[in-house]
Amino acid sequence: MAYDWDRLSVPASLPWFEEKWARRSDPHCFSGVWRFHELLPFVPVADCVTIGEGQTLLQCSNGVAEYVGVSSGNLYLQYEGMNPSGSFKDNGMSAAFTHARFVGATRAACASTGNTSASLALYCCVTKLMRAVIFVGSGKIAYGKLSQALDYGALTVQIAGDFDDAMARVKEVSSKLGIYLVNSVNPFRLEGQKTIMLRVLEALRWEVPDWIVVPGGNLGNSSAFGKAFYELKELGLIDRVPRLAIINAAGANTLHRLVDEEGLVWNGGRPDARLIQKFYQTMDSEGRRASTIASAIEINRPVNLEKCLRALDVCDGVVREVTDQEMLDAKAQVGAGGLGCEPASAASVAGTKQLVQEGVIGRNERVVCILTGHQLKDPTATVAYHTTDQQLFNDVLGKRGVRRAAFANRAVVVPNDLDEIIKAIQLYS
Ligand code: F0G
Fold first, then answer.
1. How many whole angstroms from 351 Cα to the centroid of ligand 1?
2. Predicted model pTM
């Protein structure tokens, strides 16, 4: 989506946006998305839907800095789990929902690995403006997320299949029944997600960091981030763009394979479509399906692949893959520093560690890792990591190649006996 900026009023500098905070009793100035309306002006601000999204935090984490190998004071975590539905999706949903209402939609649908559906369901139930229809793969969604959609009253359709099956179906069904589709194929979603980068810049006093590191699933975030920086640079609001690192799960590594093994590039807007098609054909003929503990990014065919190639081009980006083991260890380190995140989010931290080891990210560079979803989204993975129950560990993690929990905080098992309890506390504290 391109704007005719010459005909719009764009602020002369980014700090101008800070004035809006003084007017936070106005919901559009309180919203961490619509506070930046001048940079996503696709409908008048009065028509923008908000439920208070985007009140997020950029935390400087020295514990995580030490873990990944960058110098103290240079590692930041952008906590998108603080959104109303507990993930970054609310940034994009407020924008897609706004557009849906603008065009008069009464029902909205999405396929989801859980967070998009939780977000859509929440916007529908808070505003009562539309009915949510969500498609999920059976057994492919963490309970924290499923419980949200159910609680919020969404019509929940469980497909016998995975995310990609659900995605294919929701496209068919929404076009047949005239239901508005809010997956990140929807360009308005990406407009909302641009504001994650605006809030990062704001928290850094408008200084551009050296690196943004983000998990890659459907590649909506990475595409949106690239667009945000491209536009800010074009508008003269920043003088350089950060580098972008997109981190796949090793069990769902389409982007990594296409970019790093097959050499796929943006190519001035003409990426090699035949290469992509051939890759998917081989994937299907070999029966390869995404499989990772990070269910949020367990995706075979990322819908924003091409836009993401553009973001890599704009931001001199790199792609990496990390194992489930690496993600869970990184997640434990994030949790140990407070707030915590779900497994997919920790890909950004695990990926940073890898890039520092390779020397791609310098020790003294300023790095922002995006934590896309709240820790409570997927309690099963967290409990299995810390458990003393070997069976549970094996059932949830062992079968995915996770061998150890280096940072486990194990519960101390004691008989229900006062002396024994006191003895245990004295021993371990
Ligand atoms: N992290 C979390 C917590 C997610 O829920 C998702 C995507 C991603 C990362 C990947 O982001 O698609 O922009 O590359 N979840 C989608 C969903 C697919 O249905 O909730 P992306």
1. 16
2. 0.97
